[in-house]
Amino acid sequence: MNVDLRLGDCLEILPTLADNSVDAVITDPPYNVKFKYGDGGEKDNKKDYFGWCERWFEQLNLLHIKAITLSCGIVNLAMWAKIKEFDWIFCWWKPAAMGRSPVGFCNWEPMPFWGKVTSRNGVDVVRATILPDKSLSGHPCPKPLKWATGFVELISNPGDTILDPFMGSGTTGVACVQTGRNFIGIEIEEKYFEIAEKRIAEAQLQMRMPI
Question: What is the C-alpha separation between 163 and 14, in angstroms, rounded?
Fold first, then answer.
């Protein structure tokens, strides 16, 4: 399977991708909650967050991608409905999570979905517990591998090409390697790009090793 990793701003890289070159998008963009990413300070604090999301999401639509799902956090769900009405909302169930809700803890996150899928044999909930993972050292808020694997298998087929324009530590890329999908990953932070490169290369090596 092919892996194409690109270091840079997705707003600059997305227009260089060929039309119909991507089958599905699974990504975890910044939530704009003043979280400090990398060494450059509070990058997750955009004054025009709505407009920024509109711009990169429009670039995805120009590629005629069949299926898109993203982790937006409950706080941004209404904003994404204004950008484009979803076709469905998937659920990431994260048992034992420590996030807060009006009744105590929050153990789930919405995953808005746009598009169509060919399979009708799945369920719209992915269970993925947040667990310690030494390979993720150096990234402040990585998604668990079961999160990526679950959504990769839910909205795509083996042999498809998956795009993650906010690749981070490369978890979606690892899931693609393990499930027989091609992968295109974009990441703006060099430190996280290097973590992703290493993790995806190790996943490729493991897949090539004899059983």
Answer: 10
